[in-house]
Amino acid sequence: MKTLFFAFRCSFVALIFSLFTITGQAQSAQQWQAGQVLSTTALGKINIDSCFTASPITDQIFKRIWLKSFKRDCTVPTDDLRYLRVLHINKDGHTQMGELICNKAIAQDLLDIFRKLYQAGYRIEKMRLVDEYDADDERSMADNNTSCFNFRKIAGSQKLSYHSQGLAIDINTRYNPCLNTRTGLVQPANGKRYAHHRINKKNQPIRFIDKNDLCYKLFIERGFTWGGSWNNPKDYQHFEKRNP
Ligand SMILES: [Zn+2]
User: Contact, 88 vs 114, CB < 8 A?
Assistant: First the structure.
């Protein structure tokens, strides 16, 4: 009986300890700011699952997007959107905390894709909400920022972009610009030199997205369309999911 009591007491202590550890892990991942570079020591102390999360749009997040990416005439309810936090490897090879807003219909796709890209060491320079650039797409793209939701029209048209519903994402935007093959316009303007000569060199940290690229493969596997396959524009940074 004494042994049984001892075993029971040990497992109770172990349970309390593991609950404490789980809570501690979740807290430390949440405390990291988006954009923060993380040390190997800090990463070693936490459960990696707590770094890849999707959550509803809280009042705090809504304040950041209102009248920026979430315009007054926005037709997408906030209930359809999710705030994602994921890890990514930046241009210098360091782990960084990223953030995105997307449609809830592709939230799990993005969590899976970014986790695989992170594990493969695929470099993504920045991943901040477009609202950090006042939802100005050109500014965000020129800064090579990866982003998703932005209630806006397709450049040069009256049609709403898939970004408006959070169903499209732009990756490493400066190195994967959008080229209008009729007019020659390149967006962002500082990505011009990457619009035509798109041969990946061996040690190039940020890859040009092409059909051999891991990023391309992961998005296509999950039913996304790649803008680089279009005739016009050639939108190398862009993936969208039309029927999620
Ligand atoms: Zn796009």
Answer: yes
